[in-house]
Amino acid sequence: MIQQVTRGIRISVETNFEGAFYKNYKMRFAFGYQITIENQSNDSVQLTSRFWEIKDALNRTEIVEGEGVIGKKPVLKPGETHSYRSGCLLTAPFGAMSGHFNMVNFTSTRKFKVKIPTFKLSAPFAIN
Questions:
Q1: What is the count of structural domains for the chain?
Q2: Is 125 part of any domain?
Q3: How far is CA 74 from the centre of its chain?
Q4: Is this model's pTM higher than 0.85 or not?
Q5: Is residue 127 part of a domain?
Q6: How far is residue 89's CA from residue 124's CA, in Å, rounded to a whole number?
Q7: Which positions, given as ranges, span the membrane (predicted)?
Q8: Residues 30-41: what's their mean pLDDT?
Q9: Residue 93: how many other CB atoms lie within 10 Å
Q10: Rounded distance, CA 81 to CA 9, Å?
């Protein structure tokens, strides 16, 4: 598990390899990940949007931006957590993801970014 804390918000990431398959005559590697967001601050916060940079071993980069996470904009009171599962497809058996969540502090009404720690994606058969 990878973890990082930014401004009292802990982000934890666990990954897994889902399998490989052909799509449009190209090999694809499917990875899943679980993100847990824990509010360790003294203020209530809301996740409003996300930004991902996904890179694979073939030096391809994909940028993903959007509102919320899996259709939700969770509000976290102090001590609360929110977990969700998602995934991505790569064209190589290795890659990495990094990014940030845009959040708003309900006490100060200030917007801030919470870093998502870089995490590696790797198919077990490809590890030497």
A1: 1
A2: no
A3: 15
A4: yes
A5: no
A6: 15
A7: none
A8: 98
A9: 19
A10: 10
Average pLDDT over residues 87-107: 95
Contacts of 87 (CB under 8 A, 6+ apart): 18, 30, 31, 32, 33
- Taking Cα atoms as reference points, which of 58, 50, 49, 47 lies closest to residue 96? 58
Q: Let me know if residue 14 belongs to a domain.
A: yes
pLDDT for residue 127 is more than 80: no
The four Cα atoms 92, 4, 42, 112 give a dihedral, to 10 degrees, of -60
Contact 103, 114 (CB under 8 A): yes
Q: Which CATH number fits the domain that encloses residue 91?
A: 2.60.40.1470
Q: Are 52 and 97 in contact (CB under 8 A)?
A: yes
Asked whether residue 120 is domain-assigned, the answer is: no
Cβ(4)–Cβ(61) under 8 Å?
Answer: no
Q: How many other β-carbons are positioned within 10 Å of the β-carbon of residue 104?
A: 16
Give the phi and the psi of residue 57 in degrees, each rounded to 5. Answer: -70, -15
Domain membership of residue 37 as a residue range? 2-115
User: Could you read off the pLDDT of 46-70 as tens digits, one per residue?
Assistant: 999 999 999 999 889 999 999 999 9
